Amino acid sequence: MPKSKKTKKPLGHESAVELTEAEWEIMKVVWAKEPCAAGTVQETLASSRNRAYSTVKTTMDRMAEKGFLEIERIRNLQLFKSCVSEVDAKRGEFRKMLKRAFDGALTPMMQFLIEHEGLSKAEASQLRELVEKQKAKGKGSK
Predict the structure, then answer these.
(1) What is the pTM of this model?
(2) What is the DSSP letter of 103?
(3) Is the distance from CB of 5 to CB of 17 less than 8 angstroms?
(4) Which CATH architecture is the domain 1-104 placed in?
(5) pLDDT tens digits, one per residue of 56-107
(6) Where are the domains of the chain?
(7) Does 8 score more than 50 pLDDT?
(8) Facing residues of 79 across strands?
(9) Sign of dihedral through CA atoms 33, 35, 36, 41?
(10) Phi first, then psi: what are they for 3, rounded to 5°?
(11) Where are the beta strands (DSSP E) in 57-138?
(12) Which one, of 101, 75, 82, 115, lies nearest residue 7 by Cα?
């Protein structure tokens, strides 16, 4: 029968998830291929980054200690699963940037994006649709 070892308690939805650049790269592979071994992650990342297996494995072990990954042990094989959803990771990254660059205010951030990054007609239309959907739901506030 397979043995499963859970590391730290998985992070809750309300927890602020902050991943390093290396952790982001690893999580993207894990989300796409989970459960997966560190070797699978290293091979996948080899095309874009030349990272040694030991570096990837050590990083993944540390991510498990932080509660980002869960390790399932089956005999002498370790499979990694995510404890953090992609949505929660993106939310944490977004909140960190929003707080740091715009003092947590969404409107100035949107204004900055529109004025300095530009918006195609299609993107402007999609944005209008999203705003209208939010109005219809009555979810103008958090």
Answers:
(1) 0.76
(2) T
(3) no
(4) Orthogonal Bundle (1.10)
(5) 999 999 999 999 999 999 999 999 999 999 999 999 999 999 999 999 999 9
(6) 1-104, 105-142
(7) no
(8) 72
(9) positive
(10) -95, 140
(11) 69-74, 77-82
(12) 82
